[in-house]
Amino acid sequence: MDYAAVVVLQILYMIAFLALISAGLAIVFGMMRVINLAHGEFVMLGGYTTLACDRAGIDIWFAMLVIAPLVVGLVGLIIERLVIRFLYGRMIDTMLATWGLSLLLIGLVTLIFGSSAVSVAAPLPGYQLGEFQMGGYNLFIILVTLVLYVAMWVVLRHTRLGLVARGAMQNAEIASALGYNPRTVYMVTFTIGAALSGLAGGVLAPLTGLLPASGGAYIGQAFIAVITGGAGAVIAGTLASTGLFGVVSQLVSFAYSPVIGEIAMLALAIILLRLMPQGISGRFFRNSQ
Amino acid sequence: MKAWPSIGQIRWGWFLAAAAVLLLWPVFADTHTPTVLLIWALFALSLGLMWGYAGLLSFGHSAYFGLGAYTYAIAVINIGESTVPLLLAVLVPAVVAAVIGAMMFYGRISDVYMGVITLVVTLILFKFMSATAGDQYAIGDARLGGFNGIPGFPILNVPGMPEISLFGVPMYYIAAVSLLGCYLISRWILARSFGRVLVGIRENEARCELLGYSVPAYKTAIFTISAAMAGLAGCLFANWTEIVTPGVFSLRSAAEVIVWTIVGGVGTLIGPVLGAMALGMVKLLLGEQTVIDNSLLLGLILVVVVLAIPRGVVPALQGWWRGRARIRVQRAGHGRVRQRATTVRSGESATGWRRDAPGGSGASAEAPGTGGRLPAQRAVRP
């Protein structure tokens, strides 16, 4: 019974982890049709921001929940102004340029922090579940993800900002005729996407440890989760795909090994894309957000 | 030029000069570094053929390079003699690519989704090969060795004579002949109607389909050919390094070949070759020092090239050269000549390929009336 509870908690944690690292990419892809291959490095930068703040003696909760999103959002804003805005509508070029940015950021972080792995202490104690020792921090991750997705839904669905954003994405010319500059909307959207990635990186830093190259681990998973989810409905699609991937990868991991679990998840992504080239939301959630 | 067999746009003078330089090089200088540059050039050529002419960008072309390397190492340990392993190293990546390509292209998967699938294939191979430490992971006598890879396998030998190994200058000649041969094969392919249809698919997929060509079959075929060349490059690379590690499947390896190709010039064959050689040399030089991080520079080059010269260095230089020639023609002031020059020019722009509007996605990736600079329109429903 305890074992079943552990499995369920692990699956929930895995779904939350995937949904958290995919959020920023999903916003940027779903809203702007821009694939940001530097997304993993945004997450990594969020982690290093938390680390730097922690070392400087700043309260770690404040660092990961406030400073990390702000710093990475600012980085995203600078990158949008310097690079991305010249490439709207050129999907492959955007992917290549952001891939270059990702290498650039890895190089910069290596120069500043060195290439060895560092870790941040988890600020929550573990707890006992029957005979199993569980990390209390995992529950916090699940909570953060829930709050984040509810907030995203509310902002997109029930605020003026969300309305303008959706309008600009649906028809840039009409939005612009109504007085909303689409380019400003794209800029704000990209910045918010980067800030969400920074939040994910900051919150996950105590669990995953940090390496300059650790963004590579996130981008693969976030990339397939978001593309498989599809651009038709950002939130529903991403949640559906991360839910599916989380369940499959964790069940296979418990049955065989974590590596096989990860391979099962990647293979599932190929099969899903073959069956549903427009993503899950292109097929099932056409009318939701 | 009638004396030579016609294979399209090849300039035989330039080709023979380049071949002569490559073949005479060992007389004057060391061959160790040039060998690996030629191998990387072959790898970039394989991607450039597929990306530049059929408009198919594989984000994980290192999968086939790595498969070639692993296939050779595993087969040569089991067989001992290198002829069959060499053939297998070309065949296995080709078969894998044919299966994956057929799955993608008959499923009408293109651009971004093709990018995801090709990348995921590479990631799967990387994860799997990294996790194969231990005796239970062995194919015949070859232990896969996990993250440490497979060291110490026999390198290429004279066919039928396993005791005579080919390394040093002979290895250089194998790489040089492979590159020249694959270049000729690529030119020959592009001169056939097969190649013309590929370019047609790149320009307008729907139109080719309506003309009766099976677009998925053509795409699968060029994907397979390209993977076979990448596999050959991988096999040669394994012989050069004399060890195969999962690093050949890594994201960085996948990124490098794309950078080489795009910097050199997509839509040409010589561009990727020169790009791979120049940037490969930069990479080797940077590897010897620790002041500038290697990926910092690679990333910077990629960003700057995409922003400033999105077609790559070689096409940019060609355009500049032709522009000068055109000005000279116009200055000569003959009406007829000017008219001819204009005709050539319009012909160029009809086939000149903009990378921002690849095949099937072109229509959806550009919002009409916005100059193609805005993201796609899509249905956002509340």
Strands, helices and their partners?
The complex is a heterodimer of chains A (289) and B (382).
Chain A: H1 2-32, H2 39-55, H3 60-82, H4 91-113, E1 127-129, E2 132-134, H5 136-158, H6 160-170, H7 172-177, H8 182-208, H9 215-229, H10 234-255, H11 258-275, H12 279-284
Antiparallel strand pairs in A: 1-2
Chain B: H1 12-28, H2 32-54, H3 62-79, H4 83-106, H5 111-130, E1 138-139, E2 142-143, E3 150-151, E4 157-158, E5 161-165, H6 169-191, H7 193-203, H8 205-210, H9 215-241, E6 243-244, H10 251-264, H11 270-287, H12 294-308, H13 313-332, H14 335-351, H15 362-365
Antiparallel strand pairs in B: 1-2, 3-6, 4-5
Helix pairs in contact in B: 1-6, 2-6, 2-9, 2-10, 2-11, 3-4, 3-9, 4-9, 6-7, 6-9, 7-9, 10-11, 10-12
Question: Explain this structure to me?
Answer:
The complex is a heterodimer of chains A (289) and B (382). Chain A is an all-alpha fold and 289 residues long. Chain A is built from twelve helices and two strands. Chain A has a single domain (11-117, 136-284), classed as ABC transporter involved in vitamin B12 uptake, BtuC (Orthogonal Bundle), CATH 1.10.3470. In chain A, strands 1-2 form a two-stranded antiparallel ribbon. Chain A is globular and about 65 Å long. Chain B is mainly alpha-helical. Chain B has one domain. Chain B has helices at 12-28, 32-54, 62-79, 83-106, 111-130, 169-191, 193-203, 205-210, 215-241, 251-264, 270-287, 294-308, 313-332, 335-351, 362-365; strands at 138-139, 142-143, 150-151, 157-158, 161-165, 243-244. In chain B, the strands form three sheets. In chain B, strands 1-2 form a two-stranded antiparallel sheet. Chain B has a two-stranded antiparallel ribbon with strand order 3-6. In chain B, strands 4-5 form a two-stranded antiparallel ribbon. In chain B, helix 2 runs antiparallel to helix 9 (215-241), helix 2 (32-54) packs across helix 10 (251-264) and helix 6 packs antiparallel against helix 9 (215-241). Chains A and B meet through helix 4, helix 6, helix 9 and helix 11 of A and helix 5, helix 10 and helix 12 of B.
